[in-house]
Design goal:
- It is a single chain.
- With about 375 residues, the chain is of the alpha/beta class.
- About 35% of the residues lie in helices and about 20% in strands.
- It is built from 10 helices and 13 strands.
- α8 runs parallel beside α10.
- The longest helix has 24 residues.
- It is globular and about 55 Å long.
């Protein structure tokens, strides 16, 4: 009997392990396998082993999804830790993105300029992630983004057919997160989109679009402050120019499979606040951080989308997924934490796709995949 149980236990472990490994690699070959793909789901099961305390037997087993969309080409997004916001430096960055861009794709890249700055008297700008003491006005940020776009357009092979959305972003972690700053940021994006279309220059709008962006996280600032920034952005953005913004933030302390009753209580945030700045206000779209290896962040954002459905009949429709695999390799690996945050772009995309598409109320395609970097 003991031998039979041992063999059965070994078989269960082997099946679970193989299923997990297969589920990780299958998404990469979805286009070759048709419209079905297996993705991992943490599942409980009956075990022949006598229960020890409150331990529950669990295994990662595959779930078959119909009409799976293979992860798209991943772009590199950048934490701007370059102290010189000069045209040529950013033109070189844009050129590098163009030479790596696959043909015929719709892509996105985020330029995260750091901390919003509102120094009074209608003067707005940023403090860079690499230089938190020097005020950088909106004119310098505009110049840097124009340089990046110029480099991308100039270096993109003729006839490529690729389109890039450049999302100029900040975080919500400073006293400069104000309604006035949000309004000024939207005006900058309006200007960039007008500049892209010309005149006096050529019309680059088939190749480039400018969006705003904010890394909105409940752990950074009160909900009322971040909502004010979003309201300011909404007050001046141009829908005609498509000068919308991306929330590329986190859903800190939101419910997930390990804590279904969790609430984002930091700084008086609520689920409604997160939904509002991510989707509820007209210019808001989302490219959420899907960092954790366990899938907890993907589950958090699925539940936020479901909140929108059940509360407003308006689930969050995500533009895609954001990971930080490159940034983790460049810094510390991100493996020292309880839940690793070094998802690969393929893992992040597949996790968000799984969690949103196993529920018909939130089922949706995902268009973009981007990965943060400090150096590329």
């Amino acid at each position: 009997m003991q031998s039979f149980l041992s063999r059965r236990i070994a078989l269960l472990v082997l099946v679970a392990l193989l299923s997990f490994l297969v589920s990780l690699v299958l998404p990469q070959f979805a286009s070759a396998l048709g419209d079905e793909v297996s993705v991992p789901q943490l599942t409980t099961f009956s075990s022949p082993i006598r229960s020890q305390g409150n331990l529950t037997p669990r295994a990662w087993l595959p779930v078959i999804l119909k009409n799976f969309t293979a992860p798209p080409a991943t772009t590199v997004s950048r934490y701007v830790n370059i102290n010189s916001l000069d045209w040529q430096t950013f033109r070189n960055l844009g050129c590098n993105r163009a030479t790596a861009a696959p043909p015929g794709k719709n892509l996105v890249t985020i330029l995260d300029f750091g901390y919003p700055a509102d120094i009074g008297g209608g003067q707005y700008g940023v403090y860079l992630l690499s230089d938190i003491y020097t005020f950088r006005p909106m004119t310098q940020i505009t110049n840097a983004v124009q340089g990046f776009m110029s480099g991308f357009y100039s270096c993109l092979p003729s006839g490529s057919g690729t389109h890039l959305t450049v999302a100029a972003g900040v975080n919500n972690s400073s006293s400069g997160v104000t309604r006035g700053h949000g309004a000024a940021w939207a005006q900058m994006v309006n200007y960039l989109n007008s500049w892209i279309k010309g005149p006096p220059g050529p019309d680059w709008s088939d190749t480039l679009t400018a969006w705003g962006a904010i890394d909105a996280e409940p752990a950074y600032n009160p909900a009322s402050v971040t909502r004010a920034w979003a309201d300011g952005y909404a007050s001046t953005y141009s829908w005609t120019l498509q000068s919308v913004y991306l929330n590329f933030g986190a859903c800190d302390s939101c419910p997930y499979f390990g804590c279904p009753s969790c609430t984002p209580s930091q700084y008086s945030w609520s689920l409604d606040d997160i939904w509002y700045v991510s989707w509820g206000i007209p210019p808001a779209y989302s490219l959420p951080e899907i960092y954790t290896f366990s899938g907890s962040t993907a589950d958090q954002w699925y539940r936020m989308s479901l909140y929108g459905y059940t509360t407003y009949n308006s689930p969050i429709i995500f533009k895609g997924s954001l990971t930080q695999w490159n940034a983790c390799q460049e810094v510390d690996g991100c493996i020292f934490q309880t839940d690793r945050t070094d998802n690969s772009p393929e893992q992040g995309y597949s996790q968000l796709y799984y969690y949103t598409n196993v529920d018909t109320r939130t089922a949706q395609p995902l268009g973009w995949s981007s990965d943060m970097s400090w150096q590329k």
